[in-house]
Amino acid sequence: MQVLSVTPEIFPLIKTGGLADVTGALPVALAGKGVAMRTLIPGYPQVMDAFKKKKPVHHYPLLQGGKASVHAVQIAGLDLFVLDAPHLFDRPGGPYGNAIGADWPDNWRRFAALSQVGGDIAGGAVSGYQPDIVHAHDWQSAMTLAYTRYGKAVGTPSMITVHNLAFQGQFGAGIFGELGLPAAAMALDGVEYYGGVGFLKAGLQAAWAITTVSPTYAQEIRSPEFGMGLDGLINMRSVDLYGIVNGIDTEIWNPETDKHLVSNYTAKTLKARHPNRTAVEDRFNLDRDDSPIVCVISRLTWQKGMDILAAVVDGIVARGARLAILGSGDAGLEGAMLAAAARHRGRIGVVVGYDEALSHTMQGGCDAIVIPSRFEPCGLTQLYGLRYGCVPVVARTGGLADTIIDANEAAVSAGVATGFQFAPADSGALLHAIRRLVEAHANPTIWTSMQRQGMKADVSWDKSAQKYLELYRLLLSKRAV
Ligand code: ADP
After folding, report:
1. Which positions fall inside the Glycosyl transferase family domain (predicted)?
2. How many CA atoms lie within 13 A of 245 on its CB side?
3. CB 15 less than 6 A from any atom of ligand 1
């Protein structure tokens, strides 16, 4: 089975969030199940630098304002089509914006181009390659399914995975004329959305199947509270809506072999976590003592509930926990966290920035990880936490609700608890969860059991990849009909 995946990010080449982890891991997990997945990505500078120029497999004399070509390459074990379009992608900064984080004003053009190329490849533009299925991710590649539907590849089964419904790619109607789609596409059942063009909306409308990254989030987005204006459409498409929890790369995230750890360990040698804990204390200027270190590894944003956390840091310290915070994002929240660290020297430490290596050390050394998200399509950091014996404390929403077993009395006595859930996502409930955590941490039997139980949980891609495979098969059977 040949699947063409189209995505704006893929680990290890370019990553701003969990989407990249998923698109990087899925081809590997599916390869063992008879699926050959090729991934189309933009030729950002770091992608173009990662391979020696080869003969392109397809040329565009003019693609959204400039020359472009498609290269078929293998990088880091991934089969890729790279869209080399310097006028769109050869820029400093991030994949979506400049160095200070402002979105590129022509993002619609950049990702329409990516999507058009996805549609063209699905339609046979690269000789010798014909995918059976097209799989798009998030708004940046969602239009692939519109180009598929209104182009040569109209009969190709398609899937869109929504990693976060909050980002939708909505643009003014004025761009429609430059998309190269037939006039009929500018309709309620096409790409039109509230008078403009909605990229994600277009993908949701055109996809044969819609998946999101956890069963709970798949239900939540049918409600106005989580649907972000698209709940009407999602409800209309609910028979084709599926929730599949993400896995993680259990080789990269393996406490037994992780090179970022000062000390490697297994569920049987949890005491060997201690040197990692000391490394965290040193890096975050925390006192050395036996109180639990609760960490944060996150974008500092409203979605992640970082304001909820900032509002109760004093209470958390008062209850006897320490905080190690790694993150960047909203300037106000960065400031609030730094101010908290200044108020509570030795009890709260903050590193502003993105640091993959440090995130590993923290999972391997901290006692718990707190994730107070207002909504969380899946979430990965709680899965890393499970695998590393870093007990997750999570808001009961989306994938957090699906992957953590709350330490209520019944779960604790049955020995199945893996973390703490709280609801609603507010400061009072969070503080209550921290109190439960501090109590549990003081009981080594309960705490060790929770760590071990978490480390036993199957967080690999295997089960989830199997579910994607079953969905692909279902789509192929629909094509046959
Ligand atoms: P989202 O994709 O919404 O940001 P996820 O939990 O799905 O949230 O994925 C976040 C990913 O980014 C995880 O791999 C996490 O470890 C990583 N991450 C987030 N912030 C940082 C940071 N400041 N430093 C290092 N890694 C980070």
Report:
1. 284-440
2. 21
3. no
